[in-house]
Write a structure and sequence with these properties.
Length: about 180
Amino acid sequence: MKLFFLSLSLLQCICATAQSDAKYQVFTNRVKQFSKPVKVLSNYIDKKGNGPIEFTNAKKQILRFRVANQKLQIQHGGIAYQLFYYKNGYVQRIETFDTNGNLAGERESKNEAGVAFIIEKPDLYVKKKKLIDAAEGNIDLKDDTNEKIIRVELFDQNNLPIREFQPTYISSKIYWDYNVRMYWP
């Protein structure tokens, strides 16, 4: 009899979690660039309906957003969603969207709505990544931006390149942070 009630409780818990995830899955429909079907990758939304949630799909895209009181939360600059594109385990591009699912630029920086990452020295990055991975990201790595390992290209809300006078590079540690989605707008 105990086993029956334990099984029933477990089933109720699973059903409640599935219903909760389905409620937030509706928000993914606003971002047309995010392929369907989707599944929950991580869900840190509390009982009050506050927190972040991430969805993924077969194309290795990850769409994430935050909710406050079960409503889509707008981050600074009017951004509500981040869409990450991965290839072979490395983030290739990040796009940001407003509450309607339209590309939205980060007004706090260069008004970019998309960032593409180009690893120009893959062997060198893999060496640095191993150091960062071994420390689980908790490493004070020397800024290697001048080594020109990872270049970024910025795109506006119309998906047009934002012109720059010279290429922009970021450090291996900053790229690693983007890759594991440590950054929020």
